[in-house]
Amino acid sequence: MCLMFTPARKPTKMASSLPPLALLSVLLVVFPFSAPSPARSGAVVPRLPGFRGPLPFRLETGYVEVDEVKETEFFYYFIESEGNPAEDPLLLWLTGGPRCSAFCGLVFEVGIEAEKRPLLNLQGYVIGNPFTGEKIDLNARVPFAHGMGIISDDFFKLIQRSCAGQDYRSPIDSQCEMCFDTFDEILSEINRYNILEPKCALASPKPKTEGRRALKEYLHLLEPPPTPALNCRNYAHILAYYWANTDVVRKALHIKKGTVGEWKRCNYDLPYAMDIKSSIKHHLSVTSGGYRALVYSGDHDMLIPFVGTKQWTRSLNFSVIDNWRSWHVDGQVAGYATTYSNNLTFATVKGAGHTAAEYKNKECLAMIRRWLSHEPL
């Protein structure tokens, strides 16, 4: 998720010819820290292991204290705009998933191609393949799978008859439950993150069973995740694991010793006591308040299919300004979009999976540039 801020003055538009890093971006990940620290500390990173010569952009890493009593800090990466840092918007990138590292957004996606009101002028937000907490996200897998030819017409009709109105996660009818068990078996054969790509071993696998015991058995420090085949996209994730866990890299990034024993792409040990059951009402509140919003989906993501996201954005009941149409990059269709009133845009990215920019970085970069510049996609 990206939030866009501008300095507390009249916002300025960005030119469409801006270089790839022509915006301020901040990526955060939470690390508990056990020793007192200043409110904010940061240092410039001039070089990184594996990259020849000095970095071609200004990178700063550091910590921001967020809870003085519990001594908790945010670790951040900050890349300064290569355009006009004094005028360009500031993007705050919050990576989703179960405590997935912001480093992934930095290197695999667009990154390199309330206690007090902050003294920033919030302009809007961008969110990709978002999970709302509603049953609409998971239930959308059925019509998506049918539309993509993964399940037959007869099986699709059987699910519709047996499970009408029921929740995919907790069906109340035994026949519906059997249908979903079969459906899960079918999905187990494909890559849910992008149905076009081969199914590979996850670089950050989920525990097979639920509960604290399973998590405890799964979380072995300094034990690398399974290595996928070389032709798999997530082979790069295993390389990131080894790179990020070397002492020379931690030193270059100014990681405090003792803050984290092992870097993981995603950490499934979630130490929170409250969950937001639905974010849709918050989307409605923010967009109704005049903030710009871009909601986008990779159209081959089975994890959070675009058909569900399209459905809940439509359920906000905003007037349609520009109905379903194609948008283009380099003369080719890059996806489809609908523009609503209250400055809400829903867009698909053609051929992309769950982390859309990881699959289609050129198209996603063009999309975000146009949106930042108040241009049509």
TrEMBL record:
Listed GO biological process terms: proteolysis; secondary metabolic process
Gene3D superfamilies (alphabetical): alpha/beta hydrolase
Domain of life: Eukaryota
Family matches, as InterPro entries: AB_hydrolase_fold (IPR029058), Peptidase_S10 (IPR001563)
Residues spanning the signal sequence: 1-36
Keywords recorded for this protein, A-Z: Carboxypeptidase, Hydrolase, Protease, Signal
A GO molecular-function annotation: serine-type carboxypeptidase activity
Alphabetical list of SUPFAM superfamilies matching this protein: alpha/beta-Hydrolases
Family statement: Belongs to the peptidase S10 family.
Protein name, per record: Serine carboxypeptidase-like
